[in-house]
Design brief:
This protein is mainly β and 208 residues long. The protein has strands at 6-9, 31-32, 34-35, 46-53, 58-66, 86-92, 99-105, 111-118, 124-127, 136-142, 147-155, 168-179, 182-187, 203-207. Strands 1, 3, 6, 7, 8, 9, 12, 13 and 14 form a 9-stranded mixed sheet that branches. A hairpin with a 2-residue loop joins strand 12 and strand 13.
Length: 208
């Protein structure tokens, strides 16, 4: 099995959520997503960045992708956003891979949040009664320049373990891009299968 990737999350003193094109993002590593099955570069470049502010007690995520247009018709919280274009994080904040939080946002900032768990037989279960309180998504689609940018703000209180220097969470980062009738499934780490729910392939979010 390929070695798991690590993302170093810096801590920055911010006054508010950094805007989509704020220079604050320059301090955060930019990581690219690849084809989930093959690991090849996707048709449309898709990246993510993560930083945090311990004073505000929030994690911030910026997703960006090349996009001439966006496809998502969902309007209601917890609809199956993954069936169209979406950004996703799977967060295992207690490092037990049998349970993790699933966060998704559409290009129009419709949200999906739930908890994934596996029983002793390895069957996957989804609990959508859980909500990431205070989580916000702000997207901007620049049609002239062909780019979709989405910024998330997630309070530490949404998690069971608070971020702090020196600890790590297991993390999956994903996106679904619609190409006509087909979809591109993108992942931070190569999965080898068209299935995002492979927690053993999650990378590590390391808090600086």
């Amino acid at each position: 099995m390929e070695e798991s990737a690590h993302y170093l999350c810096p801590n920055a003193a911010l006054k508010e959520t950094p805007a989509a094109h704020d220079s604050t993002w320059d301090i955060a590593q930019k990581a690219s997503l690849a084809d989930a099955v093959t690991g090849d570069a996707p048709v449309r470049l898709t990246t993510f960045q993560i930083l945090r502010d311990d004073r505000q007690a929030k994690i911030f995520v910026r997703f960006q992708k090349e996009a001439d247009q966006v496809y998502s018709n969902f309007k209601i919280h917890d609809e199956p956003l993954w069936k169209q274009e979406v950004f996703e994080l799977f967060v295992c904040d207690d490092n037990h891979l049998e349970t993790y939080k699933e966060l998704q946002s559409s290009p129009w900032d419709v949200l999906f949040d739930g908890i994934i768990s596996y029983d002793k037989q390895g069957k996957r279960h989804l609990n959508v009664s859980w909500h990431a309180a205070g989580w916000e998504s702000i997207s901007h689609f620049d049609k002239n320049n062909g780019r979709l940018t989405t910024v998330w703000s997630i309070p530490y209180d949404a998690f069971d373990t608070k971020p702090k220097a020196g600890i790590s969470w297991r993390l999956g980062v994903f996106a679904v891009n619609q190409n006509g009738e087909s979809q591109d499934l993108l992942s931070w780490q190569k999965l080898g299968r068209p299935n995002f729910h492979l927690p053993e392939r999650f990378g590590y979010l390391d808090f600086e």
